[in-house]
Predict the 3D structure of the following.
Amino acid sequence: MRLLLLILFSLLSNSASAIDWSKIEGTQLTLFFPGQYSWEWLLTSHQGANSIKKGRGCFLCHKGQEKKKGEAILKHDHHHNAMNSSSLDVIVKAAYDKDDLHINISHDAHQSVTNYTLMLDDGSVRASTVAGCWAYCHEDQSEMKAAGTGERSHYLSQSRSELTTQGGGDSLVSSQTLEKLVSEKQFNEIWQARLSTGNKAVTTSGYILEKRHLVDNNSVKAQTRHHHGQNAIVFSRKLKSARKFQKDLNSENLIYLGLAVHRKGNSGRTHLVSFPFTLSLNKNISADVNAKAL
Ligand code: HEC
């Protein structure tokens, strides 16, 4: 038995559960209810539209406004009654070893979350470097204002040939073009963890291009922790991409992230989201979250 425990410990020692997160500095972010504000709205009716077109990110004007924005947006939304909060404070930490990146997201344990989704980009998709999740949130996707009755999931503009203020509709580019975009890493990677009973995390991952593909149950792992009144989830993935729809996570590029959570009973757009934030694996490149080398 002793021997077995020793072996188990040595197997775990390189994994997320062996990291002393208390020694790693975190970044506080506030997630908020985004209503039905889409990519098209951001680039047209929004007062910050010109800045976004010039590549300036949301934090430039909105840092610290998340809680108030969430409250104001929820007040006028017809999903008002479905949401039990309009914002959530989280702490994000990151660490990496020679093989894996680990991202730790924690929050007050009373604020139960059932679903965590991370969007990642390596800088290939310019819209995501500026707007994070808003790059794939369109006026005509399901539950948005111009959705009609059709089902349409998240998509990136480069997957459409005709773009209007109502979104890109079903004007898909050719399958050869889609393949080329995948080979050029012109997609957003997504990692998702759903908490089952007992708070065990069930993960899936994939990418967003012409739609949301959740296709892989193995590459991304997640562990939940409960510590000093905080609930945490730790996502882990190999630094090197193992599938064609994954990005290489390395110290040369900033990693652009967006985080969305669903609380109990919520799904679809009744979620809380972050403004886009950056992560760096290089201590000489500063970011919102600086990953610690283990
Ligand atoms: C150059 C400054 C600037 C930038 C950059 C900017 N915004 Fe704004 N935004 C504004 C102003 C000004 C308003 C109107 C006043 C307000 O609501 O804060 C606004 C309003 C909003 C609102 C409406 C809030 C409400 O109460 O109804 C949302 C949502 C929003 N911005 C999201 C974003 C996102 C997402 C980004 C990044 C992709 C972004 N903004 C970047 C200036 C900016």
In short: Residues 37, 42, 46-48, 51-52, 56-58, 60-62, 69, 72-73, 130-131, 134 surround heme C (CB under 6 Å). Helices lie at 2-12, 39-43, 49-53, 59-62, 66-75, 126-131, 175-183. The CA atoms of residues 53 and 180 lie 25 Å apart. The longest helix spans residues 2-12.
